[in-house]
Write a structure and sequence with these properties.
The protein is an all-alpha fold. Helix content is 77%, strand content 0%. The chain has helices at 2-17, 20-27, 33-52, 60-73, 75-85, 88-96, 98-110, 116-133, 142-165, 173-196, 204-231, 234-238, 243-254, 262-284, 291-305. α5 (75-85) packs across α6 (88-96) and α10 packs across α11 (204-231). The longest helix has 28 residues, at 204-231. The two termini are 39 Å apart.
Length: 310
């Protein structure tokens, strides 16, 4: 029951990210994706860091920077580049392939054994998403495809390394999320200034949109995401990713008047079923110790073994 609650809370993150397209198109200035990335990440990161009242120490300065770049700073610009160079459906499918990166990296770095059911769930989930978002008019662009693949790989590597490094003793997910969002936002600033120039003028709708993106879509969503990584396997968390494009499709139908064809509805059912099946498969897979758990295990064995390890 506890695992189900953790999965459900973590799932709120990709569900929230599914609202990004609708908010961006209805409320935010057009053609300013990098500025939007900064506005999403940096204010939220500073706010969460202030609430946590904890700064990185020692090696966690560079570790937080690396994680922030992988999960935010590199991921956002590459994702937006992919979205601009490719039809939205193609970009979404490349993003839905992200769980396959995590499955492979988690096996290499974390020792998480990926069962055949888990791999099939990732593949079927990406196939279901493709049925929802791809159209016959979709065209491929080499730069866009590379950007989409690298963005998925960047987020996948960030998810795995977040699990691998864990958290400093006494530091909760709130602080870790704040550190990463701050580092990622700072990384995007020079890229946004170089590519897009000065910030645009903002009206009331833009302030409302950026406020939602900062607080809900980024601050709370990424806190739930990193909290989930700390309590679940990296593979289990990333298999929730297809919920994002599915949510975008539902919002497009409910709020923007976009029609859903029978093929799209079948694809949604397939992708959602694959997501549930992936969680069931992950729940049955033995989970290796995280770094924190391994330390606790070693201490316990030291106490009971009667010998001092060196």
């Amino acid at each position: 029951m506890k695992r189900f609650a953790t999965v459900a809370l973590t799932a709120l993150a990709p569900i929230s990210w599914g609202s990004t397209y609708a908010v961006a198109t209805e409320l935010l200035p057009p053609d300013r994706p990098l500025f939007t990335g900064v506005m999403r990440a940096l204010p939220a990161g500073l706010l969460l860091t202030a609430l946590a009242r904890t700064l990185p120490k020692g090696e966690w300065w560079w570790k937080s920077a690396v994680l922030g770049i992988l999960n935010i700073g590199a991921f956002f610009p590459l994702l937006f580049l992919s979205a601009y160079r490719l039809p939205g459906g193609v970009a979404a499918v490349l993003g839905a392939a992200g769980p396959l990166f995590v499955v492979g990296l988690a096996a290499l770095v974390l020792g998480e054994r990926a069962s055949l059911r888990t791999v099939l769930a990732a593949v079927v989930g990406a196939f279901g998403v493709s049925m929802v978002v791809l159209t016959a008019e979709a065209r491929l662009d080499a730069v866009g495809v590379i950007a989409g693949v690298v963005s998925s790989a960047s987020m996948g590597a960030g998810t795995v390394m977040t699990k691998r490094w864990g958290r400093p003793e006494g530091v909760g997910p709130l602080a870790m999320t704040g550190w990463q969002l701050t580092a990622g936002g700072l990384f995007i600033i020079p890229v946004a200034a170089l590519v897009e120039g000065a910030p645009p003028a903002l009206d009331g709708k833009a302030f409302l949109g950026y406020g939602y993106m900062m607080l809900i879509n980024t601050g709370i969503a990424y806190w739930l995401w990193f909290r989930g990584i700390g309590q679940l396997t990296a593979t289990s968390v990333t298999l929730l990713g297809p919920l994002s494009p599915l949510t975008a499709a539902v919002i497009g139908w409910a709020a923007l008047g976009q029609a859903l064809s029978p093929v799209q509805l079948v694809g949604m059912a397939i992708a959602f079923g694959a997501t549930v099946a992936g969680q069931l498969a992950a729940a049955r897979t033995p989970r290796p110790f995280s770094s924190t758990e391994q330390n606790d295990q070693n201490i316990s064995m030291d106490l009971t073994d009667g010998r001092v390890r060196r």
